[in-house]
Amino acid sequence: MTIMDTLRTGYATCREHLRNTNVRVSVIALAVFVFFTILLFIASLFSIEIRSQLLLLIPVLFMLLVIPVALNYMSRRQYADLAPVYKDEAKTVRVKLISANMMGKPVRIEGVVERVYFQFLNRPQYLVADRSGAISVKMFTNPKDNVNLNDVVEVFGQVIPRYIVTGDPVINCVSIRKM
Amino acid sequence: MPADTTEKNETMNRMLEYTVPLLGFGGAFLGLFIWMNALPVDVRITILGGLLSSCALAYLAWIQPRKDIVALTTPLYSIIFLGFPLDDVATIVLEFLYAVSLTILVVRLKRRFGVSASVSNTKNELAEPIRNYIEKIPDVLRNVSEESGHAAATVVIRFSCGDFHDAAWAADAEVAKLNDARAPRVVREAFAIVGEQAECLDKSFPAPPRFATFSSDAHHVLAKEPGSPGDTNDLYNSTLENALVLLFACAWAVSEQNRTDLLGQQEFVLQLLS
Hints:
The complex is a heterodimer. Chain A is α/β, with parallel strands linked by helices. Helices cover 45% and strands 26% of the residues of chain A. Chain A has a five-stranded mixed barrel. Chain B folds into two domains: 2-119; 128-273. Helix content of chain B is 70%, strand content 0%. Chain B is built from 14 helices and no strands. The chains are: A alpha/beta, B mainly alpha. Chain A binds chain B through residues 90-94, 96-97, 99-102, 105, 107-108, 131-133, 159, 162-163, 166-168, and chain B through 65-67, 69, 157, 160-162, 164, 201-202, 204, 233-234, 237, 241, 264-265, 267-268, 271-272.
């Protein structure tokens, strides 16, 4: 196999992974990239020093997009690998039965999304309610489905304290999908 | 006396709430006074008022059952203000703005995160709703043996921790023992209900079409109204909640050795009662 064949295979594999993993860049990351692109463009118009360093600055500028994409891809892959494990081990419970004594336990809940926060940051938080109560569901990457207000969802996750070491119980979500 | 302690705690907490704006604005006004009269004192020393005020706010946030991370981290900001060199006017303006923020935060803490001290002290004594329920059913609790009380404690603790399989096993084992004993029928029913439903939860089964419930003559000793028979889901859920609360009451009344562990479960029981 030649070097070109290896590169072609590697590129095809990466594209396949990216397509399957549904990588998304957050609005903030895009905004930062656009801002610094415009800044660099304007600065290069007025400064010879900056124009002379464009060969270095342009790749650095693209890293502002590449790094968030790579991080998003890594976190999505990790969650995709964890989801089947949680689906096997999680117990289906009502929100009312989740208490601080259940920290660390994998759970499954079904409910309606009553509130959505921080979707634009790729760190969405949902308030999911069933007939017995409501609980916060936090996710540290964007979910596969586009979950919105009033969607009926199935959540798999782990019960954790809200502020890592203290606070009321919330669900650290591994998978949330529309039913 | 628990009631006296609760009242003292409430009074102390209320006084601390007043000290937050007092210390914050007190420091700011003292700084203004020093600056206006050109006194030979460094104006920045008055930031201590803001620091003490933020520490009081952080303490008030810490003792709440639900933690407010914004209020908890306010002392960090006053330490940053102390270390950051500013001129006198900027320091005084900053102090006033900080005092306003702390005042808003204490009001927010009270409205969004605040509960009465009687409930927030649940860690050391039994909460009032549970105590009232136990006092309501002495006839039931009188005839529960210590072994059954211990078994009830095990079932409640295992269930609240999400160990449904262990809770089901312990409940079923106790049902078998109670069939030969002279325990109240409602207690046997409670164990049977928790055993059945804990097993369903362990296997993530939905509510079965037929399930164990309390007999109609036991409804007056239950903590909550049983659900309507027309709404199967509601009846299924409320039956479990009543069973768990009853078992907690039995465990508390009869099994003194388990009381320390049971105190840790009362948040869960209060949740079931709500």
